[in-house]
Design goal:
Elements (H helix, E strand, L loop, with lengths): L6 H6 L2 H7 L1 H8 L2 H8 L4 H17 L6 E6 L2 E7 L2 H4 L6 H13 L7 E7 L3 H9 L4 E6 L24 E3 L4 H16 L1
Parallel strand pairs: 3-4, 4-5
Antiparallel strand pairs: 1-2, 1-3
The structure holds zinc ion (ZN).
The site of zinc ion has 6 residues, from α8.
């Protein structure tokens, strides 16, 4: 027989149980305002580029060319990395390469077809090649690299008609902030 909560039954219930029935209030008290905001409005491109920027800052502090990257799957960050060429003494240790390798480990597959890469600077030819190999869904970057960018500036390796995979590109997200950290780094290095 289905339970009915008439006024009388409810009054007869212990106070603790009645409180538990008021789920929205209990729920709200257990979540921070930030968590609630994120549930209502999923984070956009700026949010994730800002996360990549935080990692670029780590590279800056370590004396590395300040580029940071994160990989996002189903709205969650599954990989974070920054440039570590000097630390690892490895010219392939770009933020994007490290982030993609981490993401492959997190997903358990080399295919990242439902993943998006957020990076502060336009990828080079090596990283663009890797992006095509892992069949990434989207690339979102901050500032363009007019000398070596392989996502449209010098060449666009991500959307070659002859390849079997093409990746969506969004550029210019937090462009000024992403460029500023690089300019600042190279200015200090020249001085
Ligand atoms: Zn690269």
């Amino acid at each position: 027989m289905p339970k009915k909560f008439s006024g009388q039954t409810r009054r007869a219930m212990p106070k603790r149980k009645v409180a538990a029935l008021r789920t929205p209030k209990v729920f709200a008290s257990r979540c921070s305002r930030l968590q609630l905001t994120r549930m209502i409005e999923p984070p956009g491109d700026e949010y994730f580029v800002r996360e990549a920027l935080r990692h670029a800052q780590k590279a800056y502090e370590a004396g590395e060319v300040p580029v940071g990257a994160v990989v996002v799957r189903e709205g969650r960050i599954i990989a974070r990395a920054y440039n570590q060429v000097e630390l690892l003494k490895d010219a392939t240790a770009h933020a994007e390469m490290l982030a993609l390798t981490q993401a492959e480990a997190a997903v358990g597959d080399w295919r990242l077809t439902d993943c998006d890469l957020y990076v502060t600077k336009e990828p080079c030819a090596m990283c663009a090649g890797a992006i095509v190999h892992v069949r990434l869904r989207r690339l979102i970057f901050g500032c363009a690299d007019l000398r070596a960018g392989a996502a449209g500036s010098v060449i666009n390796l991500l959307q070659l008609p002859s390849l079997n995979h093409r990746c969506d590109i969004t550029s210019g997200v937090l462009e000024n902030e992403c460029a500023a950290i690089l300019q600042d780094f190279f200015r200090k290095r020249r001085d």
